[in-house]
Specification:
The structure is a single chain. The chain is of the alpha/beta class. Helix content is about 35%, strand content about 10%. The chain is built from ten helices and eight strands. Strands 2-1-3-4-7 form a five-stranded parallel sheet. Strands 5-6-8 form a three-stranded antiparallel sheet. Strand 1, helix 2 and strand 2 (about 70-75) form a beta-alpha-beta unit. The longest helix is centred in the middle third of the chain and has 17 residues, at about 160-175.
Length: about 290
């Protein structure tokens, strides 16, 4: 569950980072051990998925973080142009905080021993909502970085100041102490990602078929539309028992049933129930935009 070629001998993500900085004649900082908290730099990146309440919580969080001597800055990438200006900021940043989608995808260009905090998302699909880290494969494919995730248990309540502070304190400690790189496979996965990978290890045959469907190597196409780890783990859409129905949005005469390691997924959901969230009715969701 990582960017192809991001890890191992190819080190694709690392080489892309090097090429970008060199081609734009910019550099990124080297890690310095033992830095005090006020010397660590964190950014919270704007994201269209934030609700008005989320934005208010983020601003309160920044105020409280600064009182704890943590340097946290809010920014929107649209305010920083050309791209060289963005690279200057990324190269001097230690902690990158944002939710899934475009706002998150520049975190691999941070320096070594940096940390990304994925705020996850309230993912609305088929009139239901569930927590989803979505592009976690980018963090898992970035072996010189650590990833932390918003608590799936409480994500449906919207972003909360205390959880933002907890994650940021943990990220600052990691940056200050440093960590061994490359980070081991699986270390940068969300709880949902861990369940998916373990289920694949328990039933590689079904997992191979599931991935072939998600990558449109074999039908049905519904599995391409539902090709998110969280939909598999929470058994939604084409992965629910009986598959997606016409009443739920399936086109007539289409197959809405996807392959899933169902028994393994359910066993692992029970094993990791303290780390996983739930599926909520859309009307009960406080975090939906």
């Amino acid at each position: 569950l990582a960017l192809p070629g991001g890890r191992g001998a190819l080190d694709g993500v690392g080489w892309l980072r090097e090429r970008l900085y060199r081609s734009h004649e910019k550099t990124y900082q080297s890690w310095r051990p033992g830095r005090p908290a006020h010397a660590v730099r964190a950014i919270v990146v704007d994201n269209r998925r934030y609700t008005a309440a989320d934005r208010a919580a983020i601003q309160e969080f920044i105020v409280r973080a600064r009182r704890e001597d943590m340097h946290v800055q809010w920014l929107a990438w649209s305010d920083y142009w050309p791209f060289e200006r963005q690279l200057e900021i990324l190269g001097a940043t230690d902690v990158y905080i944002s939710g899934p989608g475009t706002g998150l995808l520049l975190h691999s260009f941070l320096p070594n021993t940096s940390v990304v905090i994925n705020l996850s998302d309230c993912f609305p699909r088929y009139r239901k909502v569930h927590p989803s880290a979505q592009e976690e494969y980018v963090a898992e494919g970035t072996p010189y970085q650590r990833a932390l995730y918003y608590d799936s248990h409480i994500r449906h309540r919207g972003l909360e100041v205390d959880e933002l502070l907890r994650l940021t304190r943990a990220a600052f400690r990691l940056v200050q102490a440093g960590f061994e790189t490359p980070v081991p496979p699986g270390a940068n996965l969300s709880p949902e990602g861990q369940v998916f990978v373990e289920a694949c290890a328990l039933n590689p045959g079904l997992c191979h078929q599931l991935l072939a469907e998600q990558n449109s190597q074999v039908p049905p196409y519904q599995c391409v539309l539902d090709a998110w780890v969280s939909l598999v783990v929470y058994e939604l859409g084409g992965y629910q028992e009986g598959g997606l129905t016409v009443a739920e949005g399936l086109l007539p005469d289409k197959n809405g049933t996807c392959t899933i390691m169902r028994s393994e997924i359910r066993q692992l959901r029970e094993k990791y129930k303290d780390k996983l969230g739930s599926v909520w009715a859309q009307q009960d969701c406080k975090c939906c935009v």
